[in-house]
From TrEMBL:
Membrane-spanning ranges: 41-60, 72-94, 100-120
Subcellular location: Membrane
UniProt keywords, alphabetically: Membrane, Transmembrane, Transmembrane helix
UniProt-listed PANTHER family: TRANSMEMBRANE PROTEIN 256
Presence of keyword Signal: no
Name of protein: DUF423 domain-containing protein
Family membership: Belongs to the UPF0382 family.
């Protein structure tokens, strides 16, 4: 499905841009532990941007797979919840935002399990 390929490419672009911003724009402005948090957010955004692209290509092979469709939407939700909460945490130091991060992690995990389900169903 072209939508997931586009969403993946947009998120890959954003991960590169946000990674550069973190390395050059935040250095010296936030504590080193928050720079590490920023980098974690960037890494997981990029991993799952690639995951979205993979889902898009797989949907081209298996267009009727609801497992793949759900996987793509959960990856996007995971990027927003996991990486998004870490980005905000890194620049605001509001520790309560850390409570949102695991929801994104669970969305990532379910998304990958759904790819396994789709593979088993379509083999």
């Amino acid at each position: 499905m072209k939508l997931f390929i586009m969403l993946g490419a947009i998120n890959a672009f954003l991960a590169v841009a946000l990674g550069a911003f973190g390395a050059h724009g935040l250095e010296g402005k936030v504590e080193p532990k928050y720079l590490e948090i920023w980098q974690t957010a960037v890494q997981y955004q990029m991993f799952h941007a690639i995951g979205l692209i993979i889902v898009g290509f797989l949907m081209g092979q298996f267009p009727d797979s609801s497992a793949l469709n759900w996987s793509g939407w959960l990856m996007l939700a995971g990027i927003i919840l996991f990486s998004g909460s870490l980005f905000v945490l890194a620049v605001t130091a509001i520790s309560k935002l850390g409570a949102i991060t695991p929801l994104g992690g669970v969305a990532f995990l379910i998304a990958w399990v759904l790819i396994i389900v789709a593979a088993v169903k379509n083999m």
